[in-house]
DNA sequence: GATGACGAAATTGTTGACAATATCATTGGC
DNA sequence: GCCAATGATATTGTCAACAATTTCGTCATC
């Protein structure tokens, strides 16, 4: 009978939640590459315990997002241009094969949905809302991988993207990246609609490579090396 | 002047070393999927402290090798056949693109080395030494990725392989897997020697898919579902 | 003999204190 | 004013004790 209220004895957020929070901070460039993440700071801002925070650090380090040095703690790892380039090559391979698989297994309804997202993105270009464009762009790429049902690849691509997420969003604000992306998407969609897996794969690879090229030129413009 | 001997105050192996040890145990099927890894046990066998062992668990969990449940600790994660299938699709994409890149950038010397490894593997078939064959097979695939210089992909493929490493080695003992692999490698090498990147990519993908098919039939034979 | 309640043992989660190291400010010398 | 040595502070690494939970054996009951 003694019903204990239990009253949410929630001592603090679990480690995965803390890891998510840090990830989101990095994606939002609230934490920038090279920045040190001191334990006490994260504890204060998340309410987690030290062990939880340290656990989160370990996991993020295993994901390649943080770097942990002896007695110096965790810091946001910064990807060199060379590494970003290799990373995009991996993305091209993975998303390329997904585009081909999508073409084979997607229903007409799936394809229609994909087209609708692409159309929404076009309106964003006119409205100049890069923020919304970035969100829809994520949805577009995600949908292709989701429909193929390959969670392993979806997870891999998501991880590969995290380190350059902030650069991606910045890139949409610059030059003609958005219009170029629209063109690429249209080419991919055309191949999909024509039931041409190889064509879709090729177009998707080109799209990813274009993204890298744009990022490279953006890097040159920003840091001029 | 008081030179302190310092006498190796090594209290125990660092966390990464413990993680390596666990990884090797899993690869050698000394630890099998589903098996629980109790902290005290690992501490006794590695000499590491509890925090170190727990750190190692965290990292391995992030790599997808272990599963950690609240108050139940770590256990070796078992990949379903469905997941293995998705994993092989990812490998096909990544190793395929590497085969193409290898064809483009490899020197004649690189290609010659690759051929030599393949030839050594053929002698293994005759000698029936599956162990050595497995080792050389790893070398062969690794070399292609190493020459392309894409460490990101090499790392990804290595991680993707770990969960099925023991199955892989088992497969070489069975049926005609080795001779089939030799054929595949020859086809890939032919394309490479003919400076045909697309052909090399296609052949590599087929090779990986064949590996999956063999693993699937092996699974059916073992567990008959 | 099967089943469920109960309690002891085993195992993991959490916290705090202390040790080792790095980082920073201060001081003294040039 | 600049630079190196020095000490104080901040930060991380490590360990041990305690709390929470699961797991396993025991026993009573049907």
Automatic annotation (TrEMBL), chains A, B:
The HTH gntR-type domain, residue ranges: 12-79
Keyword tRNA-binding: no
Coiled-coil stretches noted in the UniProt entry, renumbered to this chain: none
Keywords: DNA-binding, Transcription, Transcription regulation
Gene3D superfamilies per UniProt: GntR ligand-binding domain-like (1.20.120.530), Winged helix-like DNA-binding domain superfamily/Winged helix DNA-binding domain (1.10.10.10)
InterPro entries noted in UniProt: GntR_C, TF_FadR/GntR_C, Tscrpt_reg_HTH_GntR, WH-like_DNA-bd_sf, WH_DNA-bd_sf
Record's protein name: GntR family transcriptional regulator
Native source organism of the sequence: Erythrobacter westpacificensis
Classification lineage: Bacteria, Pseudomonadati, Pseudomonadota, Alphaproteobacteria, Sphingomonadales
């Amino acid at each position: 009978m003694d019903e204990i209220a239990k009253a949410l004895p929630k001592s603090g957020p679990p480690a995965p939640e803390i890891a998510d929070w840090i990830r989101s901070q990095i994606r939002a460039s609230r934490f920038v590459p090279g920045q040190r993440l001191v334990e006490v700071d994260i504890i204060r801002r998340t309410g987690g315990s030290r062990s939880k925070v340290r656990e989160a650090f370990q996991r993020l380090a295993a994901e390649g997002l943080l770097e942990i040095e002896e007695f110096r703690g965790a810091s946001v790892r910064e990807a060199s241009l060379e590494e970003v380039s290799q990373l995009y090559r991996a993305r091209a391979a993975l998303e390329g094969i997904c585009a081909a698989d999508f073409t084979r297994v997607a229903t007409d309804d799936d394809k229609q949905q994909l087209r609708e997202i692409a159309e929404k993105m076009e309106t964003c270009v006119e409205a100049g809302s890069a923020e919304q464009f970035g969100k829809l762009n994520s949805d577009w790429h995600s949908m292709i991988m989701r429909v193929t049902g390959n969670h392993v690849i979806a997870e891999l691509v998501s991880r590969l993207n995290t380190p350059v997420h902030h650069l991606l969003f910045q890139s949409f604000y610059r030059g003609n990246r958005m219009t170029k992306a629209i063109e690429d998407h249209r080419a991919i969609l055309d191949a999909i609609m024509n039931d041409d897996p190889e064509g879709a794969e090729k177009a998707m690879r080109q799209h990813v490579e274009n993204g890298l090229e744009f990022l490279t030129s953006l890097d040159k413009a920003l840091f001029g090396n």
